[in-house]
Amino acid sequence: MIRDDKAEALENSGLWRRAAERWGELFRQAKTDEERHYITQRRAQCTAKATRPKTTEWGHVCAVRAAATRTLKDMGIDQKKEDPLRGTKYRGETGRRDGS
Q1: CB of 30 within 8 A of CB of 2?
Q2: What percent of the chain has pLDDT over 90?
Q3: 0.85 exceeded by pTM
Q4: For the chain, what is the radius of gyration of the CA atoms?
Q5: Dihedral angle at the C-alpha atoms of 9, 15, 20, 24, nearest 10 degrees?
Q6: Residues annotated as region Disordered (predicted)?
Q7: Pairwise CA distance, residues 46 & 55, whole Å
Q8: Concatenated DSSP letters for 20-60?
Q9: Residue ranges per domain, the chain?
Q10: Which tens digits make up the pLDDT trace of 15-48?
Q11: Are the C-beta atoms of 23 and 42 separated by less than 8 Å?
């Protein structure tokens, strides 16, 4: 099978995306189907190991928005009743200042 010192060094260093790219370059140079199959497997292994970790609760936008809303509510700022920056009443769905 194919051995590539550069790709294996990248794998040993934990640089999975770069190693997968290197295996892709070798795929273009492969001459037989067996070599292509082996390279495809190695590239798939590198890609699987390179997946990014799932975001934590705070990394998710909805969780941050919910935390901000809770904080505003705890501070006594109800955004549904007034616009804290302008000192006006909430316009609601109609767009009017009085919400009607």
Answers
A1: yes
A2: 45
A3: no
A4: 27
A5: -60
A6: 75-100
A7: 21
A8: HHHHHHHHHH--SHHHHHHHHHHHHHHHHHTPPPPP-GGGS
A9: 1-79
A10: 999 999 999 999 999 999 999 999 999 999 999 9
A11: yes
